[in-house]
Write a structure and sequence with these properties.
It is built from 7 helices and 96 strands. The chain is mainly β. The C terminus is likely disordered.
Length: 1241
Amino acid sequence: MDLLYLQQFKIALNCPAVKEPPVITSQPEPITAFASDDITLTCEASGKPTPTFRWVKDGKELDPSNNPDLSVSPGSGTFKVISEDNPINHYSGNYTCYASNELGTSVSNQVHVRTESPPTQQKEKKVKIKAEEGESVILQCNPPESIDPPNIHWMDKRLRHIELSERVTQGRDGNLYFSHVVTADSRNDYTCNAQYLKARTILSKEAITLTVSPSNSVARSRRPQMMRPSGSHSSYHVLRGQSLALECIVQGLPTPTIQWARKDGELTASRTSTENHNRLLSFGEVSESDAGQYQCTANNPQGTVIHTYSVTVEGGQKLDGMCMSSVWIAGVNSELYAPGETVELDCKADGIPRPQLTWSINGVPLSEIDKDSRLSLEAGTLVLKDVKFGDTAVYQCKAQNKHGSILINTYVYVIELPPQILTVDGKTYGVMEGQKAELECKSFGSPRPEVVTHENVSWQPRQNVVTLATGGSLQISNVSHGDGGLYTCYLPESNVSISAELKVLNQTVIVSAPLDLRVQRGTAVVFTCIAKVDPELDHQLLWRRSGQKLIHSANDKKYTFEDPDLTVADVQDVDEGVYTCQIITRLDMAEASGSITIVDRPDPPSQLQIFNPMDRSVTLSWTPGDDHNSPVLEFVVEFEETEVETDGWEEIMRVSGDTHRTQVSLKPFLSYRFRVIAINDVGKSDPSAPSNPHSTPAAVPDHNPLGVRSVSVDPDTLVITWEEIDRRNFNGPNFQYKVLWRQVVGSGPSWQYNFTTAPPYEVPDVGTFTAFDIKVQAVNELGSAPDPEPTIGYSGEDAPKDAPMVVGANVLNSTAIEVTWAAIDKTTVRGHLLGYKVIILVGKGRRHVEERMVVQTGPNEEKKVVGGLRPYSHYGVSVTVYNAKGEGPPSDPLPIQTPEGVPSPPVFLDLKSHSEREMMLHWGPPTHPNGVLIGYQLRYQQTTDSENNLMREENIDDPTITHRTLTNLDPHSQYRFTLAGRTGVGVGMPIIKEGFTMLDGVPAKNISLLAGETSVNLTWVSQYRHMNVDFHIQYRNKNGDWKQTDKLNLAQSFYQLHDLEPGSVYKLDFIFSNKSFWKTEVRTHGTGMEAVSANFATEGWFIALVSAVVLLLLILLILCFIKRSKGGKYSVKDKEEGQVDSEARPMKDDTFGEYRSDNDEKRTASQPSLCDDSKLCSEDTHLGDYGNSHSAKTEVFMDESLASQYSAVKDGAEVQERSPLNPASATPTNHGLPSSVAILD
């Protein structure tokens, strides 16, 4: 029980007089100080009475208050060095603070104060280094030594940092290492700057000059060698909790690549990280698990070097959870004891090497205290029996080994107090399911009171789950909903009790966690975090990136928070990291993490080089580029020929992504360049820089062409061809094909040959279809390919010259025959026998051939069944043989006749019913009788299922009959009729049709009328099976007599009433069986005319008068036109303008277009115009009223309509409106009297 327990008791009893032992609240810290630094040692403590302080330096008492050089803070043990007279090293040493009051003395940790004068720059000589390109170089820094290790910065004279890379590296010793130098490294201002942070000092070393001279040997690569550390093995001893860095700086050309590994385990990213271009392996806080062997492997195309690091971890002191290399302290618990109790102070320490434990009381070691039989020490545990009030003190446990010491204070307070419960009554505890619940029941008393706890509502204790902790708290592990309820805690001695309620809530669970996303730059990503939260709890969703809380900003659109999503826009390199969503409630928190990894296609490989060149292979090596977080899956090796024009780069092979060297097979007599492309999940890299050209020596051809064969077409000629060899397989200069042939006769004559550069090769005068051994061999200037195996080829074919013999035919049935023949003599085929053709000629012999049918067979067949023939027909049969060149002559036709068969179906079958019990059948004879037609077979029956539905059959023996009437049929049934022709062989294929007999006739329905000016169109729909119905139509107009149409039939479906008067109303009456079944009225289109006008216009005298007037007008107009054409002179231009005026321009109502002379209205006296004296040419004639005066052509109709138009001329617009032929309501005006313009045209 700690002093907080006592403080709570003081508050509960309102007893501030209770004394407290001293507790050091602020420990002194180790100090490293320089001449200008302040030195302050802190020591603060609490307690009642107020503690007093004293210091011990290097084992001797130090009273800061009596030292004028020191200033002590009032009421504390803290002091500060205020004098500047004494040298700073006067204050170096080990310091310990003691805080004391009536209850004991607490001791602080021992701290070490180190002092030093600021480092100074020593005079140096200028350093000049000369090196050849490709050599390794080290530029030494050698900063002044100090207790404050400096930060080293290599810079130029303009204070710009020297650019570091895999080739140029800065070591932890401050030196600058060049794996190999290049001419660009030459400069005279390499300056090492040492920054001492604690001393607040920067020292610049003398500038170093590096001169790199070019070297012809730079192309000769060097294998890797260790620069720092040297050798193949090094050892490191480190304390637990400290940091560790393993260096691996190597030289080599090209620059070696570094790989780290752990030999005795797995190298995890959580424990280590790489820096300085992978040249440094760092450990944050070393633990015992980091002890082991590590390995650095450096590679370049010339070889590999390996360095092994042995790491040993030794522990600082760790005393009951208080670690020397840590910042947290949790020592032995301080307790209150009643007189007579036994005190056991257990102090455990750990470290490498194992620390030694010592005990002190109030800062005095046990060895210096008088022996007490009640006090004993057992394996680090201090036991004090039968304690008394005088045993109240501060006890110290100290652990020490060679690495240092550590000390903790614990308090023993002997006191008598009445029992009390300090925890508030009626408290409610909320805890999540599955967690641990702790119901407090803090009691106070000396001796310690006994605490009893139980649940009021159906609580059953569970083994190993519910425990009563020290101090009276009830602990329930792995809480379930059944543990909820009311609990009571009471002290039996004082009958004091409290109650508490336990509420068990559902644990917060993330059901959809953010994902690990691999994206390219510039894209937007969305993280989703969905959680299941207890309904009684409010929750908050927070997002963090790499531990830092993300906050929404209205000005920054980078992050968009829309629960449950987080959107990261325009992802860039700075957005990489771990994104964590936190669902926070007042009782628990759930979190899950995803990540953003920027991926991209890899950088191109570099340093592509050719090694181990051989006649037909080389070894390629390269250095992979940055894979941009997406491992390289494979490398594509491409080549290009350098001495000929090609289509560009071609793929030659692929290797896995972990391969950086491969052997490439080559072909002779070619010049190559190579390049390498890396491929990852994102895409392909750009190609590497091409290698230097590499040429292979010439050699004899490796193989001969394939596909050697004869493709002879013409007789007496042998044509040999083959598949050309690719140019890359020529293997040498002057490549040719050696073509060899010989006739296959026994062992054959000697080989004949010739050379060519390309297929095919033609050999003339070799006979028709003669067999030859042929072969083609590849040769070049260095020699020939292996001798090829010959193959058989033939010279060109010719058409067969003979026909098959002994041709016969056997009739199988009326449509099939079997044709046989003797095998042909193959010597007469003059080519490869492909087969036979059976030729069927329709007709007798070779004359009157109407049709030809050809059936092909295989070369080994000597008979063939030919089907599909017509019965009762004459055929001629011939057989011919054919090869690739064509057919030979046919054999003489063999006449055959197929026997009689059954006829084909009749051409058609029509059904007509004129009554309800009759059906007339009409048909057409079969197209193919297939014999002598002797008649027909007619069968019919009702289609309904019934017992009386019998099939009726009737034979018609006269083949010339094509119709038949059936009587006594059922008017209420549908019939199926089957009709087939007959020959002496039997009945042929039938034609089938179904039909109904007619029902009683009924009038038409759905009658539609469409009226015109002088006609009315009538349509109707007849009812099913009511076709033979006759009817009449009677009609008349308002004042006319009844008229009647001829007999109409429903089958017509259409009729037109014509010669009707326009604009009249007609009554229509439809008559069937002397009875009217429908009446209606209809009005014709157009405007009706007065009876007097109609009668007047039809009089003969009026027609004659009108005709005479029209004739006179025509004569006058013709004379006017002739006169006009011979009139005054005028220019062509004015004539054209006049034509435009009369034909193109619109005319006014009171104007008539005419030709005009040069002067307006000017005419010659000798040629007066006819129009001068004629009203026809005057403006008052108003001929424009008749219609469109722009018309180019007008037809003149000499009928009764002319009278009305003539009257329109005299009566003007008023009569024209009354006319039924007014253009607005009748025909266009250009169908009436022509205008003068039209006549002139």
